[in-house]
Design brief:
- This protein has 238 residues and is an all-alpha fold.
- Helix content is 71%, strand content 0%.
- The chain is built from 14 helices and no strands.
- It has helices at 4-14, 20-30, 36-44, 50-58, 66-75, 83-95, 102-112, 118-131, 137-146, 150-166, 171-184, 188-202, 210-214, 218-236.
- Helix 10 (150-166) packs parallel to helix 12.
- The chain is elongated, with a radius of gyration of 20 Å.
């Protein structure tokens, strides 16, 4: 195993590179070391290449002490500008069954879903989809209807779907939020996310295919939205 100073020299060598293989090799080596603090310091270093930083985050959970290390950052309110990313990594650890503090991480997710920073809210909403359940429906529903950031609204819809993949979700409680959203929403990405979630939860195919979403097919979303509105009109007797 390399010493920290060897990793330091290696980091300087690759930090200005655009070669993904260089980044992956470096990350693969450091994630297997006990240098959790050093690994984290590279992530939070403002001089670290953005792509290298992403690669470092992607495998930070491989450290055996990653969960307590990151929870300590949140508990002590350290590195506030990284709270969203820290929470995302913690959610990943729990989701992969590597963590023990699901309740605590879920509480942070619910708190951060109301954060002033849109990126922090976005990460929190995604984690709610991984770890949440029927108790989080109201929070996600209100975010879907009222958040000012389109990504946060879209992930709120998708989080309903993520919850449904893990457990039986209370569809009758979720559907009114999706109905109100589809009627008031103007952002195509959010509408697409709502329809995709509806297709999974109701097992009705409204005509929106995965390939339509991959290419942002506005016309397909529009036609699917018409079918969704007809579905709700019939359901609620409008």
């Amino acid at each position: 195993m390399k010493e920290i100073d060897e990793f330091g020299a290696w980091y300087k060598e690759i930090n200005n590179s655009n070669d993904e293989d260089d980044f992956l090799e470096f990350v693969w080596e450091i994630m297997k070391t006990p240098y959790t603090e050093y690994h984290y310091s590279l992530i939070t270093d403002k001089n670290t290449n953005t792509y290298l930083k992403d690669a470092l985050w992607s495998r930070f959970d491989e450290h055996t002490d990653a969960e307590p290390f990151l929870l300590n950052k949140l508990d002590k309110n350290l590195d506030v500008e990284f709270h969203g990313e820290i929470l995302f990594c913690l959610g990943k650890i729990i989701d992969l069954n590597h963590g023990k503090q699901k309740i605590k991480v879920l509480e942070y997710a619910k708190d951060f879903a109301k954060n002033a920073n849109a990126t922090t809210r976005e990460n929190a909403i995604i984690v709610l989809g991984w770890l949440g359940g029927n108790r989080e429906i109201e929070l996600l529903g209100n975010t879907l209807l009222h958040d000012t950031n389109n990504k946060c609204r879209a992930w709120s819809a998708s989080s309903f779907m993520q919850i449904s993949f893990r457990k039986k979700i209370n569809a009758e409680k979720v559907l009114p939020y999706l109905y109100k959203s589809i009627k008031q929403e103007h952002d195509n990405f959010v509408i697409e996310s709502v329809i995709n979630t509806l297709q999974e939860i109701t097992e009705n195919k409204f005509g929106l295919r995965k390939k339509d979403m991959n290419i942002n097919n506005i016309e397909a979303v529009h036609h699917a939205k018409i079918k969704v509105l007809k579905y709700f009109d019939k359901k609620y007797g409008k």
